[in-house]
Amino acid sequence: MRNSPPIHVIGGGLAGSEAAWQIARRGVPVVLHEMRPGRPTAVHKTAQFAELVCSNSFRSDDADGSAIGLLHAEMRRLGSLVLHTADAHKLPAGGALAVDRDGFASAITAALDSEPLIDIRREEILEPPAEWDNVIIATGPLTSPALADTLRALTGEAALAFFDAIAPIVHRDSIDFDVVWFQSRYDKVGPGGTGADYINCPLTRAQYDAFIDALLAGEKTAFHDFEAATPYFDGCLPIEVMAERGRETLRHGPMKPFGLTDSHRPTQKPYAVVQLRQDNKLGTLFNMVGFQTKLKHGEQTRIFRSIPGLGNAEFARLGGLHRNTFLNSPKLLDATLRLKTAPRLRFAGQITGCEGYVESAAIGLLAGRFAAADRLGETPALPPPTTAHGALIGHITGGHIETIDKGPRSFQPMNINFGLLPPLGYDPPRTTARPVADGGLGPRNSGKKRALCARALADLEAWIAGALPQAAE
C-alpha cells in the first residue's frame, strides 16, 4: 500500500499523533499536518508533537479496578504509541501514571519523524482540499479559527464549547520541607513509584478557612462577552469555582486529607492537604494537583504562598484558562467517527467530546485504525461495547440522551468511567480488600469493578483475534 494515496491527519496532539502511528502500522502512507510552530496556540509552548499543556498525569494505572487504568491496559494491548511512550517516561506518582512531559513529547516526535510512512508537514490547514478522500481531523479543543469556521459550515451548526483550566507548577527547591512531607495517599505504590510520591502541605481548620476566604475574594480573569455563557467541564473545574459551591467542597475534593499522615506531626490530623505531584524527570518541578484556576497571576502567587510549605514558592508556570470546543458528535458523526454529511472526514480526540489525555489518544487510535481499514478495502470493526474503547465510542456516537419531559439533553464531554460500560447482568461478590488512591478500587463494589475489567479485557482479546489483522511491519 506504499503507493496508495495517503491518509491526511490534521493536528499533532495526542489523538493526531496516535492516529498517524496506527495508520502507518497498517502499512498505509499518512501525511501529518501540524500548524505549530508557524501558528502558535494560546497554551502550547513548543513545536513538539503530543505536548502536554495541562497536567502531566494519565491518572490511575490500576487495570483491575479503575476505568482509566482499564483503558491504559487496552491501549497497550492495541500497540498504542502514546501508552508505550508514557511507560518509557513515567515518573513516581503513587497509583497514577505520570510522565516527564518534555521527554514524553520529544520521544513521540522522534518516533513520528523516523517512521518512513509518515510525511510531516508544518502548515495550517484552513480547509481539507476536495481531493483528500480520507481525512482525520484531530485539532483538539484549540482548533484554529479558520478551520473552526470551515467545520461550522460543514456541520450546519455552531460547535459547543466549555472552559478548561491549567494548574500551576512549583520549583521543588523553593518548597519548605520542614513543613511538608512525601507520601502517596494510603501509601499506594504505583508505576515507578515508592508509595511516597506526592509532596503534602497540611492546613489546620483556621488555615483552610482563610484559604477559602482568599479564593472567594481573589480577582479572577474576566471573560469576553461571547464567553460568558460557556460552561465548565466538571473534570477540570477551577478551584475557586469549586469553593463557590460550598466551603467544604475542596476539602472533599483535591484538598482532602484522607489516607495521609503528617510525618512531622503524626498525632495531629490535618484538616486539609494540598498535594503536589512530580512534573519532570529530574524531579525539580511539581504541579499543584487539582489546582486549575482562573485567578489572575498576581493573586495566584499571593494566595498560593499562604499554603503551609509554599511561603517562598517560586512558580515555573502559573495557572491559566482557555476555551475548548467540541462537536455535537452523536448528531454529526457515524459509528466510525465519520462526518455524516461528508464521510471523507473523520474526527478524533477531544473535539469529538471525549475528555482527558488518554481518552483523546484512544479515540485517535480507533480513528487511525478505521481510516486505514477503509483505505485497505476492509470494513472497520467496532470494538465491543463492553470494552473501554467501545464504551467511549458509544458515548461519542450515541450518547445524546432524550428525556421524556424536557426533550434532548445536551451532549457533554466525558472521561471514561464504569457508568459507560454495559451492566454485568449479575452481582459479583463485594470486596473490601484495601482502600486506595483516587480512581482505583474503593471500599465498596470493587468486586463489580474487577468483573467489569476482566470482561473488558477478555472481550478485547476476542475482538483482536477475530477483527484486527496483524499490523504491517
Question: Can you offer a commentary on this structure?
Answer:
It is a single chain. By secondary structure, the chain is of the alpha+beta class. The protein folds into two domains: 249 residues, FAD/NAD(P)-binding domain; 157 residues, Elongation Factor Tu (Ef-tu), domain 3, CATH 2.40.30. It is 29% helix and 16% strand. The chain contains twelve helices and 19 strands. Helix 2 packs parallel to helix 12. It starts with 6 loop residues before the first strand and ends in a 6-residue tail after the last helix. The C terminus is likely disordered.
Summary tags:
12 helices; FAD/NAD(P)-binding domain; 2 domains; 473 residues; disordered C terminus; Elongation Factor Tu (Ef-tu), domain 3; six-stranded mixed sheet
Can you summarize this structure?
This protein has helices at 14-25, 67-77, 81-88, 101-114, 145-155, 205-217, 239-244, 297-304, 329-332, 357-375, 388-398, 446-467, and strands at residues 7-10, 30-34, 57-60, 90-91, 96-99, 118-122, 135-137, 160-166, 169-171, 181-182, 198-203, 272-278, 285-288, 315-317, 320-326, 338-339, 342-347, 402-403, 407-408. The chain is of the alpha+beta class and 473 residues long.
Q: Per CATH, what is the topology of the largest domain?
A: FAD/NAD(P)-binding domain
Number of β-strand runs: 19
When the domains are counted, the total is: 2
CATH class of the largest domain, please? Alpha Beta
- Low-pLDDT residue spans: 401-409, 433-444, 468-473
CATH superfamily of the largest domain: FAD/NAD(P)-binding domain
Approximate strand percentage: 15-25%
Molecular shape: globular
Structural class per helix/strand content?
alpha+beta
